[in-house]
Structures are given as structure tokens and as C-alpha cells.
Amino acid sequence: MKNRFSLLIVAGLLASILFSASAPVGAAKTGQKSVKLELIGRYVSAAGAESAAEIVAYDKVNKQLFVVNAEANSVDIVDIDDPYQPGFVKSLDMSPFGAGVNSVAVCDNAVAIVVEAEVKQEPGSVVFYSTYKDKFTGVIEVGAGPDMVTFTRNCNFAVVANEGEPDDDYVNDPLGTVTIIRLPWSVEFVEKSKVTHLDFTAYNDVDLDPSIRIFGPNASVAQDLEPEYITTRGNIAYVAMQENNAMAVINLRKGIILDLVGLGYKDHMLEGNALDASNRDGAINIQNWPVLGAYQPDAIAAFRSEGRTYIVSANEGDARDYDGFSEEVRVKDLVLDPTAFPDAADLQEDENLGRLKTTTAFGDTDGDGDHDVIYSYGARSFSIWNGSGELVWDSGDQFARITAEEAPLIFNSNGVPQDFDGRSDDKGAEPESVVVGKAYGRTYAFIGLERTGGVMVYDVSDPESPVFIEYVLTYDPATEPFVDISPEGMAFVKASQSPTAKPLLVVSHEITGTVVIFQLNRVRR
Questions:
Q1: pLDDT tens digits, the chain, 525 residues: what are they?
Q2: In 70-191, where do the E strands start and end?
Q3: Could you tell me the fold of the domain covering 8-318+378-522?
Q4: Which terminus has fewer CB within 10 Å in the chain: N or C?
Q5: Exposed (0-12), middle (13-18) or buried (19+): which is 284, by Cβ within 10 Å?
Q6: For residue 246, which of 523, 15, 28, 512 has the smallest C-alpha distance?
Q7: Domain boundaries, given as residue ranges, for the chain
Q8: Helix count (H) and strand count (E) of the chain?
């Protein structure tokens, strides 16, 4: 995943406008809690460094965690048979297979690990390991820049999102692809798998939804699309393409792309969609602004409700910012259309919209050289979409208002009070990771906030009317050490597979190299 910010903080402190923008869909109701997260264990990587605990996966057979340690180019195995005292078992060295490990997934006794090549624009690898045999069992070549791997629930398929990012000069821009690996009956024979590589060249000459962001210099659609994250339900995979504000729908059994969906834009002028847009106003200032936010999800997770598939997205947002090409600019540096923005001078003050990061790639709708629309990156929320990619519900400005009330010292920060309000001009709290799980007869979504930190918990049993349950931080910013900063990965453990016989939520933190284990306790109504 991207957006790895500096360890200096830790060291120093220890649907679419199609073109019509979407309104807030539904409003969460605050009701009685049905679960409460209890922190029961913490694992601290031996490296204790940035990127030492990124993605995490759970092995239900051996009661172990597999944790991506990108700092060491390894996957650490952590025993949680006693989750109150997690214990390091060993590391799986990925250096023989590539230059950087990005993701890990576990299904029964099979472990899949994706590793990018020394040159990121060259094919990467998915490395398989057997927990039963305690050994590597095979390597399968995938596309350029593999960023995420997942299994289908029945373990029949492993699916890899190959982002295909360009080099820094934006000269070598490989295709973004998805690799489908139909596995044999045992991971020991993984090299006998049937492998299908899907690209998006069929969309090169197709009129796309205008909310799909295609804008890389000299790039075809197939080069520009960058698969980031995958979730599956049955034989269908949903693929988020963050920079493109798009989602692909894929039939895994047939090995075909069924649809490419634009996710639209969020109108921050509408009630319930406010944001704090400035890091120079010295205060929490959540209000409506004439801005359209691209949803641009990072992590996504699928679940079923009343026989229908839904996808939950963590709407982090991301810009393209390379040496050879950058779309990123601040609103104060735009030339705004005087008709669309008669109050442009006031809007472009630093304490208003001037500091907000926006794009030069879109916004001049009539081609006259000025901007008629202001866009921002990410929706600062989580959303629920139906299986066709249509917006069902969005949390609006709830994350901003909840964190402002419950953690005001670290509002829109890098998780520390000294950086208060420091991310308001960018993407706010940056919801990045998400998992969905069932507990005590209800379905819950857990959303990790990469910048402000902590986990939002919602009951999504009714996808059209989710209920906010709680916001969980593992420390008090006013008095305690900042031990768990930047949740990057999550794993949900069902009660039937848990060492405590109660559901667990495991959260890995990129900046502090820590993994925390929460137990979900039932709160009776």
C-alpha cells in the first residue's frame, strides 16, 4: 500500500457527477451497543520500525498470524494460541523471490504472499507456503507491481491485484492486471495451478463512465487502470482501482471481466457531507465547501445481506505524484472560473479552501483554461455499494465529527497532538483498511483510520441504514505513549475459529510496527 509517511513523528515523540454528484445516502443511527472491543493483546515487531507490521492474515488451523514486515522484506509468523501474550515464531524471508513483500493471505493450510520485482514495472510473484508442511511450495509469476492477494472462501482461487504503477519518470507504465490462480487440491502442487492473467485492453476504445479517472500521460486505459484491492463473494471478485475512482467486477470461474464501474463523486456542499479543508486555520472547522470528492477506495470487503451482495469501501483517496508527472496542486494555485466561483478570492484563502489538495487533471469542463469544478482526493468516509457498484449508503462527515468529539487532540493528524489538524488539507483521517465480520447474530464493519488512528465500528446488518457502534483508540493522546499509529491491515476472526471462543479483530499498524488484538464482547441490550 502507499502513503508511507516518515518515522520522524515516532522518533520525535517516541454516483458520479455523471455528471451529477451523489448526496449523502442514509444517516447512521446511534443506538445501544451490541458489541464492545476489548484490547487483549499486542505484538511488537522486533524491528519496531515503519512498515514492520503492515498487512495481517489469520491461520485458523494453527492459531497464528502472518504479518507483512516490509521493512525486512519478510512475513513474520506470530502465535496467538494465547492471544493475551502473542509470541514470535519465525520469519519467512522473501528476498529470494523479489524486492518487496506487499500482501499475505491464508486459507486452510495455504499461505499466499505477493512480492514485487526489483524493478516494479516487471512481473512480480505470488509465493505459496504450506503451514502443514512448513515449507514453500511454489512460485507463480503475476503482473507488474502485485499489491494485494486474497483467497475465495472455498480456497479454490487465489486472486492478485497487480497495480502496474509507472516508474518515477512516467516513461515505463505497464498494464494494470488481475491474476486468477485456480488452485489444485493441495498447495503442495500449486505449480500445477491454472493461471489466468486479465488486463483491460478491451476498454481502450470504449466510452467510459466520466467519473473513471483516466489521465496518465500517453497512457492507454489498460495502462492507466491500477488494480489496488480485491474482495470476493462466491466466484465473483470486486477490484478497487483507487487512483481511477473505479471498481471492476470479475467472474473468476470464467476468467472474464464483467463490468468496469465509475464510483462517482461526493458533493461536499450537501448537508451531512461537510469537511475541514484547511491545516492553517488552527481549529476544527467542519463545514460545507463547493468541492466534489472522488471516493477512491483503498480496502474493500464484501458481505451478504438478505441474499444480496454488498461491498464496503474505505474511501482513502490517492493522487498521482511522480517526478515525471504530478496532478497534485493546491486550490489557491488554480485559476477558478469567475462564473462558477464568484467568491474565488475568499475561497482561495489558506484558512478556507486555499490549502486543500486538488487536481490539475480534471475540473476545466469547458476547456477555456480555468477550473469550473474543484475536486478532492477521497471521500473521508466509508461507503456501502451493491453488487452492481451503485452507492447504497455513505457515512458522510461522521468520521470527522466523531473524531472531533472523541479525539480532538489528534483531529486530522498523524496520530499525535503536535500534528493537530495537519492532514485537513489532504485527506483528513484517511480511512484505509476495512473488514466485515459476523458476531452475535449481527454484521459489523471495522474501518481503520490511517492518519488520525483508531478503528470505527458500525453495525451494517441493514446495509441501507448502518448504526455507529464505537470509535476505538488504544491510547489516550493526552497522557499516554503513542504505541499504535496508522492501522494498515485488519483480520476478523470468527468465534468458531478463535482461541478465546469469542470473535477477534486483529489490527496491524504500519508506523509503529505493532499488531493489536481486540476481543468482541457482547453488550446486552
A1: 443 333 333 333 333 333 334 555 544 444 456 899 999 999 998 756 788 999 999 999 999 999 999 999 999 999 999 999 999 999 999 999 999 999 999 999 999 999 999 999 999 999 999 999 999 999 999 999 999 999 999 999 999 999 999 999 999 999 999 999 999 999 999 999 999 999 999 999 999 999 999 999 999 999 999 999 999 999 999 999 999 999 999 999 999 999 999 999 999 999 999 999 999 999 999 999 999 999 999 999 999 999 999 999 999 999 999 999 999 999 999 999 999 999 999 999 999 999 999 999 999 999 999 999 999 999 999 999 999 999 999 999 999 999 999 999 999 999 999 999 999 999 999 999 999 999 999 999 999 999 999 999 999 999 999 999 999 999 999 988 888 999 999 999 999 999 999 999 999 999 999 999 999 999 976
A2: 74-79, 87-93, 100-107, 110-116, 123-130, 135-144, 146-151, 157-162, 177-182
A3: Methylamine Dehydrogenase; Chain H (2.130.10)
A4: C
A5: middle
A6: 15
A7: 8-318+378-522
A8: 4, 33
Q: Is-contact 288 271, C-beta < 8 A?
A: yes
Q: Per this entry, what is the length of the chain?
A: 525
